[in-house]
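Long-time lurker, first post. I've been practising inverse folding by hand and with some scripts of my own, and I keep getting stuck on stretches where the structure tokens seem ambiguous. Below is the full token string for one chain I'm working on. Before anyone asks, I'm not after the true native sequence, just a reasonable design that respects the backbone. If someone could post their per-position residues I'd love to compare against what I wrote down in my notebook.
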């Protein structure tokens, strides 16, 4: 079933689709839909690169981020119709960005939690989701269903944490990032001040759109993430070169032994 959903959503523009059994991780009123499907979509690299630390991004940057959100919305909505619904299962599509509290900082379900449980990545110091394949420059959407799209004992894969990196802490113009590293089960308010972040964005960028997008921490983290990936790639290439050279040397030695 999950493969059918993944094929449909990736055809419509998703970059990754995975699922997890959430069970009691969900609010009590949603535990009858215990399976979560996470939909991941990359943001435009050109847009992310135009977000600079310490100054307001250009107006078109603000329009691009909500555009990704709007594009993600039909992805998760469509997933409940072709597969889950036809099989007689129930499903709820959780919007990519829709708050349900008075402060406008909390959603129906944490998309980051669903994505992390599904093994797509982890949560960073900045309370953003960091995709293991694409970094933090992604948008997420989720679907909750009673359709058994995966095993109940699927293991969460946290992977490498933030370590000593505090780039986002220094870059945040609102001072909303405490510097504490996220641990599984930690409440967001224990390491990130979402209200402080939201108030800063509304005050500083209200003249552009609805003033609810900043992106400085995300762009800063993406740059660090890409550099880390680049270094890992170079290291792997060097190891391959050394390994190939050792094999060539060994082959030469064996040939010399045979001809002597």
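-- Answer (accepted) --
I ran through it position by position. Result:
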């Amino acid at each position: 079933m999950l493969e059918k959903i993944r094929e449909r959503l990736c055809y419509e523009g998703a970059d990754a689709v995975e699922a997890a059994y959430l069970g009691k991780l969900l609010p009590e009123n949603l535990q009858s839909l215990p399976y979560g499907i996470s939909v991941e979509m990359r943001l435009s690299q050109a847009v992310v690169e135009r977000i600079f630390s310490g100054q307001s991004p250009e107006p078109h940057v603000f329009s691009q981020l909500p555009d990704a959100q709007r594009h993600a919305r039909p992805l998760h909505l469509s997933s409940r119709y072709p597969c889950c619904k036809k099989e007689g299962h129930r499903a709820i599509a959780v919007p990519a960005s829709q708050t349900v509290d008075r402060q406008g900082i909390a959603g129906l379900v944490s998309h980051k939690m669903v994505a992390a449980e599904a093994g797509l990545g982890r949560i960073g110091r900045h309370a953003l989701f960091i995709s293991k394949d694409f970094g933090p420059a992604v948008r997420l959407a989720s679907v909750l269903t009673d359709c058994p799209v995966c095993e109940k004992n699927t293991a969460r894969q946290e992977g490498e944490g933030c370590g000593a990196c505090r780039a986002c802490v220094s870059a945040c113009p609102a001072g909303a990032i405490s510097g504490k590293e996220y641990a599984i089960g930690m409440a967001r308010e224990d390491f990130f001040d979402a209200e402080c972040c939201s108030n800063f964005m509304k005050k500083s960028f209200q003249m552009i759109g609805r003033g609810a997008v900043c992106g400085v921490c995300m762009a800063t983290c993406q740059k660090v993430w890409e550099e880390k990936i680049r270094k890992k790639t170079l290291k792997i290439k060097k190891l391959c070169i050394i390994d190939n050279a050792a094999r060539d040397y060994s082959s030469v030695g064996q040939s010399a032994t045979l001809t002597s």
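A couple of notes from the structure itself: Helices lie at 2-11, 45-48, 59-78, 80-85, 111-117, 167-171, 194-205, 216-259. The longest strand covers residues 35-42. Happy to go over any region you disagree with.
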